[in-house]
Amino acid sequence: VGCDRSKNLVDICGEKHFQAFVCDALSVPMRSGSCDACISIAVIHHFSTAERRLATICELVRLLRPGGMALIYVWAMEQQYKNQKSKYLKEKNDSKGKGKEINTSTTQRLLTDQVPGSSRQDSACSDQLINDLKDEGCDARPMGADSRLPVHTNRTSFQSQDLLVPWHLKGGTKKKEESVDTVLVPADSKESQELSPIFHRYYHVFCEGELEAVCRSLDCVRVQKSYYDQGNWCVILEKL
């Protein structure tokens, strides 16, 4: 069973005869302990505070039966690791000569981001976690409403853990009687050259050891494996 915040993506799953529903990762409408395994791919890095990222993992763990496993992937701050560039960085070079690349350097100004207010649930645990991450060299401070975030240049190394990534809205060309599909495409892709406006998606990219530290802060799980995979930090955990 799949779930996503996007109704359009869930509808695509339905068209392919997969089971999926719309929901919020902070409140999944499923019975506690009902899953043998859970997968969270490219979700948790969109939450704007340490408290919300922790709460999302707690919700994932709640769904697992004892002995159940979860796999979590988040975007890594380190897009070059052990002298190897990630696919994300390599695609910038691969795209040369395939069309003019969108130059987002002019948007490298600081924008005010209206970050949603965070819940104080688990605040004591989160505050301790934040201090632990600071000791490890991670900037894991919660983003405030007045915080200013840099706009990332696509296919380049990250300069900040908390940032906005530009995306273009893509409108399909269909017959009048057909509905128009709307999807997001990266700002530097060739599909984006005739598209507007640009949307900015919030990301918190994780530094080495950060995701593992968040998971280890929970008494009810055991981290089975922590590893790097193509620009992502990944954890496999087991519910005790």
Automatic annotation (TrEMBL):
Any one GO BP annotation for this protein: tRNA wobble uridine modification
Residue span(s) of domain Methyltransferase type: 1-72
Gene Ontology molecular-function annotations: S-adenosylmethionine-dependent methyltransferase activity; tRNA (5-carboxymethyluridine(34)-5-O)-methyltransferase activity; tRNA binding
Assigned keywords, A-Z: Methyltransferase, Transferase
Residues forming coiled coils: none
SUPFAM superfamilies in the record: S-adenosyl-L-methionine-dependent methyltransferases
GO cellular component entries: cytoplasm; nucleus
Pfam families: Methyltransf_11
Cited PANTHER family: ALKYLATED DNA REPAIR PROTEIN ALKB HOMOLOG 8 (PTHR13069)
Record's protein name: ALKB8 protein
Species in which this protein is naturally found: Onychorhynchus coronatus (Royal flycatcher)
